[in-house]
């Protein structure tokens, strides 16, 4: 056996060190390389031109056929919110952590949305006026009948469907008016595509939102990513966007569904009974209930709110709350209680109350029974509370 | 122990073409591994798990319980093929890795503790080749264990439950032949995942002369990785943990097959194999063998 020299040893150990460097570089700089390669290739566009193009795509609903993976990441920093695993597809679970969904869009009102979980999957398949939801957990297939007038504009019952970039972009465009500074960049990359990025920065000082970034595909103007940045944060507080995307018609099998053998088949009709109507009713009720104070980004919602009632509800396990809890996988009264526990006691010339602060929103529960909330700093809430 | 006698043969031969001598060395290594009562017992235990699950499910017919794994198990009642995936789901997090850790962790440290390592090194095979043989042996054992589990699950499933087209997690149904093809893909994926763990165990094995130390270190690492993987606040770590990619074999049950995610998993396994393989090589090549 040859005696090992110190140098030989060092050279040998150099190999694993080099391997670490290579793997680290591959894992860490992949996106950087992609970004460097994607030097501005898009023609310059003003924000207005871009908004028109985007609004045109959003309105006409004529999106090109595509498929891809949507990743939603949220870190609102809501105090006391229990962390949930990726397996839950409940709407509340979207408030924290990272979630992934696969999307196939075939044009002509055909689309499929799949939420993968560990050894489970939830699918929503819309084909014209037919819609199916299949949950592998429990082997349950639900046929969703859409009322004739709504068939043209199907409203997916899954709450998660509302967070596709298209939906989020529509909501964003509505806000883009006079209250923000708008700028456009044309050298960003999302899911390997060069995109226009529309940056909206609120002008009002009292807003908690630093900026909202909307990425539009350079060729098709399909929104590919929405990011919301809170003030004093480097990472976006909320982000939904494609991690992979292909603009080619997906296989037709994706949009056909036959309930598998042994599946429990249920039928619900939207618009007459069931969640659809409830939602509408709730919306109507809510609309009559709250006042809006302020304008643009610093709008504050003021809602009459009886804390005692809610706490009582928590103790009794109010049926409505229990039902909600079952749907969302949460015990909502209990959840409200944990959030309230994290609230700060505050008072001022306007009175006194409890303040709940998150990265993007602030809520104030006054002792005289009002709930004020908005994406604003506490000072704006205090001012609104003093106005009465 | 018969270790020394079996290994003595290639020593007296003159230099042969690399591939032939590698094959001979691997053959004798595999012979030892698969004749060792301990390893056979582990194979038997793992092979018995699908039978146990199958029999229990046959006796206690599930009434459609909710929840991921339970629902998966209740799926088995409708189709025997699903037992393969259910068994793998049960075994992949811990039992399968432990088996691999025992074989791969023992590979170098075991020889050192028996005092047979220096005899092995007197053969003109070279340390790198010896390490490669040890690793290949562990990888083959990993694939063997995975296949044994899948096979007993298939046989049990077809004996106790109806066979036929299988329903995927996405709700579409594929014919039995395609289901079997998907089982093969699953065996391949899980096998590579176990090969990645074998590289880790082999690296530990070159660091010590106490085989149980290498085995325990590997198992502890697996458990720690599993625990870290369940802490939501540490979700940034997940893509770097070996354990979080093992479960992605459920991609074969999706329609279309989740090639993207499984491809990423294979890349992660590859990174682990290269990294820990090179650590084992650097350590084994440069250390003084005194026993």
Beta content of chain B: under 5%
Q: Enumerate the spans of chain A where pLDDT stays under 50 for 5 or more consecutive residues.
A: 82-90, 150-162, 273-277, 313-330
Number of strands of chain B: 2
CATH topology of the largest domain in chain A: outer membrane lipoprotein receptor (LolB), chain A
Oligomer designation: heterodimer
Number of H- or I-type helical stretches of chain B: 12
Summarize the structure.
By secondary structure, chain A is an alpha+beta fold.
Descriptive report:
The complex is a heterodimer of chains A (388) and B (291). The N and C termini of chain A lie far apart (90 Å). In chain A, 29% of the residues lie in helices and 34% in strands. In chain A, a hairpin with a 3-residue loop joins strand 17 and strand 18. Chain A has 388 residues and is an alpha+beta fold. With 291 residues, chain B is mainly α. Chain B has one domain. Chain B is 74% helix and 1% strand. Chain B is built from twelve helices and two strands; from the N terminus they run H-H-H-H-H-H-H-H-E-E-H-H-H-H. The two termini of chain B are 16 Å apart. The N terminus of chain B is likely disordered. The interface between A and B is large, with 47 and 44 residues.
């Amino acid at each position: 056996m040859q005696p090992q020299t110190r140098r030989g040893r060092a050279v040998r150990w150099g190999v694993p060190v080099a391997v670490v460097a290579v793997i680290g570089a591959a894992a860490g700089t992949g996106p950087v390389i992609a970004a460097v390669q994607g030097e501005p290739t898009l023609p310059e566009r003003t924000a207005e031109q871009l908004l028109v193009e985007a609004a045109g795509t959003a309105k006409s609903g004529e999106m090109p056929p595509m498929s891809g993976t949507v990743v939603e990441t949220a870190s609102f920093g809501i105090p006391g919110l229990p962390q949930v695993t990726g397996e839950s597809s409940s709407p509340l679970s979207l408030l924290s952590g990272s979630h992934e969904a696969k999307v196939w869009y075939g044009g002509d009102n055909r689309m499929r949305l799949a939420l993968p979980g560990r050894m489970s999957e939830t699918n929503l398949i819309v084909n014209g006026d037919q819609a199916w939801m299949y949950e592998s957990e429990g082997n349950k297939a639900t046929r969703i009948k859409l009322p004739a007038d709504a068939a043209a504009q199907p409203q997916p019952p899954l709450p998660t469907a509302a967070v596709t970039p298209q939906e989020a972009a529509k909501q964003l465009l509505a806000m883009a008016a006079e209250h923000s500074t708008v700028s456009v960049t044309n050298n960003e990359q999302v899911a390997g595509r060069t995109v226009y990025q529309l940056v909206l920065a609120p002008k009002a000082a009292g807003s908690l939102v630093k900026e909202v970034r909307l990425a539009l595909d350079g060729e098709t103007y399909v929104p590919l990513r929405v990011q919301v940045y809170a003030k004093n944060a480097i990472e976006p507080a909320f982000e939904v966007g494609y991690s992979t995307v292909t603009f080619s018609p997906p296989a037709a099998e994706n949009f056909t569904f036959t309930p598998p053998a042994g599946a429990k088949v249920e039928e619900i009709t939207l618009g007459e009974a069931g969640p659809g109507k409830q939602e509408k009713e709730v919306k109507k009720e809510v609309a009559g209930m709250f006042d809006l104070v302020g304008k643009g980004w610093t709008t504050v919602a003021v809602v009459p709110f009886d804390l005692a009632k809610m706490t009582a509800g928590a103790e009794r396990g109010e049926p409505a709350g229990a039902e909600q809890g079952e749907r969302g996988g949460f015990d909502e009264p209990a959840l409200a209680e944990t959030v309230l526990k994290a609230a700060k006691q505050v008072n001022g010339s306007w009175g006194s109350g409890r303040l709940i602060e998150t990265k993007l929103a602030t809520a104030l529960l006054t002792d005289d029974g009002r709930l004020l909330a908005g994406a604003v700093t506490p000072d704006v809430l205090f001012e609104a509370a003093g106005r009465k | 122990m018969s270790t020394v006698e079996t290994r003595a043969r290639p020593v007296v031969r003159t230099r042969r073409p690399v591939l032939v001598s590698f094959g001979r060395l691997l053959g004798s290594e595999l012979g030892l591994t698969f004749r060792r009562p301990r390893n056979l017992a582990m194979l038997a235990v793992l092979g018995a798990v699908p039978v146990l699950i199958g029999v229990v499910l046959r006796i206690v017919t599930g009434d459609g319980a909710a929840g991921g794994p339970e629902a998966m198990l209740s799926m088995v009642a409708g189709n025997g093929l699903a037992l393969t995936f259910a068994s793998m789901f049960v075994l992949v997090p811990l039992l399968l890795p432990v088996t691999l850790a025992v074989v791969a962790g023992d590979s170098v440290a075991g020889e050192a503790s028996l005092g047979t390592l220096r005899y092995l090194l007197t053969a003109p095979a070279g340390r790198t080749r010896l390490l490669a043989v040890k690793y290949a042996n562990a990888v083959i054992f990993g694939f063997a264990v995975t296949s044994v589990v899948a096979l007993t699950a298939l046989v049990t499933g077809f004996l106790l439950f109806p066979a036929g087209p299988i329903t995927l997690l996405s709700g579409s149904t594929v014919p039995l032949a395609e289901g079997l093809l998907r089982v093969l893909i699953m065996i391949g994926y899980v096998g590579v995942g176990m090969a990645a763990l074998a590289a880790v165990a082999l690296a530990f094995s070159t660091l010590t002369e106490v085989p149980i130390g290498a085995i325990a270190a590997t198992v502890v690492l697996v458990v720690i990785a599993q625990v870290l993987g369940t802490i939501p606040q540490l979700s940034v770590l997940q893509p770097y943990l070996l354990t979080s990619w093992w479960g992605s074999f459920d991609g074969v049950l999706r329609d279309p097959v989740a090639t993207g995610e499984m491809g990423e998993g294979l890349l992660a396994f590859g990174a682990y194999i290269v990294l820990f393989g090179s650590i084992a090589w650097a350590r084994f090549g440069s250390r003084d063998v005194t026993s």
